């Protein structure tokens, strides 16, 4: 992806800058007793290297292009033993004086923040990597228990961190992380676990963020988005694992966004405790939802897997399975026009597969399916004008998942199925192989691929199940 390549280049520039000729290394506590004293003594390009121990202080980069790090940022034991404790006297780390990617915080445990662990404000765009951000909180009405990003143009690089057991008090958003900026933060390969907030237990993204390859598990929110809450601007969610989160509604992902792109994610085992949308809640403008597994989520009311509300999304090559709700176990549409699904499997979702709410005649929902497989429900379609099976390439047959009970939704194949380690041969072949839209791209599927895309989440991917050679 071009955006990913740009950010990777920026990461490389940040890493190289730390080692430029003439840069000094300032050791704490050997050269200065406190980290802040070392920062004040540092010049652009210098490294402040912090020995293991607990430092009871709060620090401010003051706009300096320096690296503040532990002795070994990629060693978890060193990171755990190199602690900055803010003593609940405010944010532990401040960056609000024009910091750029060359201002680097790396390999430290940040704890004891009473106004968040890290505050990135006034548009600062530092690099925050390989830290453990844990046990921080915010007061009522404040955002970002673990870290907050705000101000015009703030575009920090936030990678390989652990955000754990941070919290926001009443009306707070983003227990682990909150981004509310006009910039474009890059948030990748982080772990978010055990964070809590009223909205956005793990992360609240209210800006055009790239949120990629993160693990988001076991977070809680009182209202929306225990896993990820997205609001007001375009957000891209790609390659994330979002599991075991619980909130009133939209437990896995809750989107109130313009132009969401949600691709290649696992959204599984999330619970809407008293409401709707166990896996994914889509409200607002059109979204593109492609290549996702949305499985084993549950909702008390509607939309065990997905709830579309006032939204016109396109679902392409997804697998929606094992979800449960009182109505619309797989997908529930409420006042959503022009919802389209193609090359998608919806199977074994409680009593009902897809349901349209017909209570709002002035704004009726409309769902169009093509080349989809809807199977294994007491009622596959509720409130549809007619059953779309056998039209537009749609079928209703057992998709023959490899092991749905074990969370493996790849398609069985006598010609080769990837089991996570190697290609294996099954005794039967899924009817979803080579059953997608004939005009859909299949070039990324391995040979032999039958010359046509597979239905389901791994269609047109390097690990799509193989077909007979033709």
In short:
It contains three helices and 51 strands. The chain is mostly beta strands.
Task: List the keywords.
mainly beta, elongated, 6% helix, 470 residues, 13-stranded parallel β-sheet, 35% strand, 51 strands, 14-stranded parallel β-sheet
Helical fraction equals: under 10%
Class based on secondary structure composition and strand pairing: mainly beta
Q: What is the gyration radius calculated from CA atoms?
A: 24 Å
> Beta-sheet strand percentage?
25-35%
Distance between the termini: 32 Å
Give the overall shape: elongated
For the biggest β-sheet, the strand order reads 1-2-5-8-11-15-19-23-27-31-35-39-42-45
- Largest sheet entry: 14 strands, parallel
How many helices does DSSP assign?
3
């Amino acid at each position: 992806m071009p955006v990913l390549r740009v950010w990777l280049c920026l990461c490389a520039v940040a890493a190289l800058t730390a080692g430029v000729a003439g840069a000094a290394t300032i050791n704490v506590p050997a050269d200065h007793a406190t980290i802040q004293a070392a920062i004040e003594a540092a010049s652009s390009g210098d490294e402040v290297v912090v020995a293991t121990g607990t430092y009871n202080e709060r620090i401010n980069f003051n706009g300096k292009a320096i690296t503040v790090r532990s002795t070994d940022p990629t060693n978890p034991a060193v990171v755990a033993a190199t602690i900055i404790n803010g003593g609940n006297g405010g944010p532990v780390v401040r960056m609000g004086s024009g910091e750029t990617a060359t201002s680097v915080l790396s390999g430290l445990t940040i704890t004891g923040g009473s106004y968040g662990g890290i505050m990135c404000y006034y548009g600062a765009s530092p690099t925050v990597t390989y830290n453990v951000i844990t046990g921080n909180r915010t007061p009522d009405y404040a955002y970002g228990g673990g870290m907050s990003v705000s101000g015009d143009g703030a575009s920090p690089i936030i990678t390989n961190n652990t955000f754990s057991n941070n919290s926001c008090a009443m009306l707070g958003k983003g227990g682990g992380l909150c981004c509310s900026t006009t910039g474009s933060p890059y948030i990748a390969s982080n772990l978010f676990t055990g964070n809590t907030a009223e909205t956005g237990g793990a992360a609240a993204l209210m800006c055009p963020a790239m949120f990629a390859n993160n693990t988001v598990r076991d977070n809680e929110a009182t209202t929306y988005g225990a896993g990820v809450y997205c609001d007001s601007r375009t957000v891209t969610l790609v390659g994330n694992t979002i599991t075991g989160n619980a909130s009133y509604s939209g437990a896995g992902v809750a989107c109130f966004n313009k132009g969401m792109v949600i691709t290649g994610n696992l959204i599984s085992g999330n619970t809407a405790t008293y409401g709707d949308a166990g896996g994914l809640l889509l409200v607002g403008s059109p979204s593109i939802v492609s290549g996702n597994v949305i499985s084993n989520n549950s909702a008390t009311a509607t939309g065990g897997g997905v709830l579309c509300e006032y939204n016109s999304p396109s679902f392409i090559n997804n697998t929606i399975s094992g979800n449960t709700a009182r109505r619309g176990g797989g997908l529930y549409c409420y006042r959503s026009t022009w919802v389209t699904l193609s090359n998608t499997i919806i199977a074994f979702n409680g009593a009902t597969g897809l349901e349209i709410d017909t209570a709002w005649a002035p704004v009726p929902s409309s769902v169009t399916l093509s080349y989809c497989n809807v199977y294994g429900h007491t009622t596959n379609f509720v409130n549809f004008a007619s059953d779309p099976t056998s039209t537009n390439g749609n079928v209703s047959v057992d998709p023959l998942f490899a092991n749905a009970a074990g969370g493996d939704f790849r398609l069985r194949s006598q010609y080769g199925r990837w089991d996570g380690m190697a290609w294996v041969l099954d005794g039967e072949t899924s009817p979803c192989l080579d059953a997608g839209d004939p005009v859909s791209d299949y070039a990324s599927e391995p040979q032999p691929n039958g010359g046509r895309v597979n239905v389901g989440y791994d269609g047109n991917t390097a690990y799509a199940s193989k077909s007979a050679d033709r």
